[in-house]
Structure formats: C-alpha cells, structure tokens
C-alpha cells in the first residue's frame, strides 16, 4: 500500500458541496492499495502511521506520534498514487489494486486506525471529491509498504 501523510491543523473532504469527512489537528492521509496487497499491508501501514513521530514535542522537535497527540485522521482513497510515469507523458495505473480490492483495503485501513485509537473519518471510495486542508509545517511523508 502507498500513502501520503500530511500533518494538518484541519482537513475536510466534500462531495457535491457536502462535507462527508473531516479532522482537526492530525493527519490527512491519501491511500492507495496496490495489486497484490492484502491485510498484512493494511496492518503494517496502520501500525507505521500510528507510531510515526512527526508531531512536535514541547522542545519543537518532531518526537510525538498521532497517538501521543490525540489527533485525528482523515483518510481519502487516491488510486493515482499508483501512477507509473516511467514511459511517455501519460501515467499508467495498472499497478493499482482492482477497484473491489482497493475499496476493501481502503476501508480496512481506516478501520485499523480506529482500532488503534485514532479518531478516523473518510472520504468516499471512487467518488469525485474536493479535499480541503491546512498543512501544518508543512510536513508531508510518503510511505510504501513494499519498501
């Protein structure tokens, strides 16, 4: 699985002008299931996200996790993280999981974060969404369970 984590002071996702998910201080997470991914990748990614020390401590150092801060997460499906741009100018997406697998793993990832104690809301898989966020830092981290 691949994910882009953005540390945010707030984030929300809208569909047709209606807010379907939001979080206050915490993480906005774009996530993509890759072909061949399963529950092992969901568990590894959720564990890494929950423990990643990218929030500042009292000394101003990135030394706290989302669990330490009590922050929330907004998880949005983003199949374009599977983009292959190695040939030509048009990205290919053949390495993304098929939609039915992608949806199942996306929902499982959000559920895994909740099970770890992180308040988590989501967008809607496959929908045309407008994502609004206020970066904090900015801090943006790329994760890939294959690496």
Describe the structure.
With 147 residues, the protein is of the alpha/beta class. The chain has a single domain, classed as D-tyrosyl-trna(Tyr) Deacylase, Chain: A, CATH 3.50.80. Helix content is 23%, strand content 38%. Strand 6 (72-77), helix 3 (99-115) and strand 7 (120-122) form a beta-alpha-beta unit. The model has no long low-confidence stretch (mean pLDDT 97).
Give keywords.
147 residues; alpha/beta; six-stranded mixed beta sheet; 3 helices; 38% strand
Q: What is the strand tally?
A: 8
**SS-derived structural category:** alpha/beta
CATH fold-type name: D-tyrosyl-trna(Tyr) Deacylase, Chain: A
Through-space gap between termini: 10 Å
Q: Bin the helical content.
A: 10-25%
Q: Can you give the mean pLDDT?
A: 97
Main beta sheet, described? 6 strands, mixed
CATH homology superfamily name: D-tyrosyl-tRNA(Tyr) deacylase
Number of domains: 1
Task: Annotate the secondary structure layout.
Layout: E1 2-15, E2 18-23, E3 26-32, H1 39-51, E4 55-56, E5 62-64, H2 66-69, E6 72-77, H3 99-115, E7 120-122, E8 130-144
Parallel strand pairs: 3-6, 6-7
Antiparallel strand pairs: 1-2, 1-3, 1-8, 4-5
Helix pairs in contact: 1-3
Q: TL;DR?
A:
This protein is of the alpha/beta class. It has helices spanning 39-51, 66-69, 99-115; strands spanning 2-15, 18-23, 26-32, 55-56, 62-64, 72-77, 120-122, 130-144. Helix 1 (39-51) crosses helix 3.
């Amino acid at each position: 699985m691949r994910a882009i984590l953005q540390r945010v002071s707030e984030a929300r996702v809208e569909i047709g002008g209606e807010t379907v998910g939001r979080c206050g201080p915490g993480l906005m997470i774009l996530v993509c299931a890759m072909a061949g991914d399963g529950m092992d990748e969901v568990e590894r990614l959720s564990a890494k996200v929950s423990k990643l020390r990218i929030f500042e401590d009292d000394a101003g150092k990135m030394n706290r996790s989302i669990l330490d801060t009590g922050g929330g997460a907004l998880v949005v499906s983003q199949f374009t993280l599977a983009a292959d741009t190695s040939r030509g100018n048009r990205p290919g997406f053949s390495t993304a999981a098929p939609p039915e697998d992608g949806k199942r793993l996306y929902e499982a990832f959000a559920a895994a974060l909740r099970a770890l104690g992180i308040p988590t809301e989501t967008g809607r898989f496959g929908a045309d969404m407008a994502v609004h966020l206020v970066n904090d830092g900015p801090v943006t981290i790329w994760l890939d369970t294959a690496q």
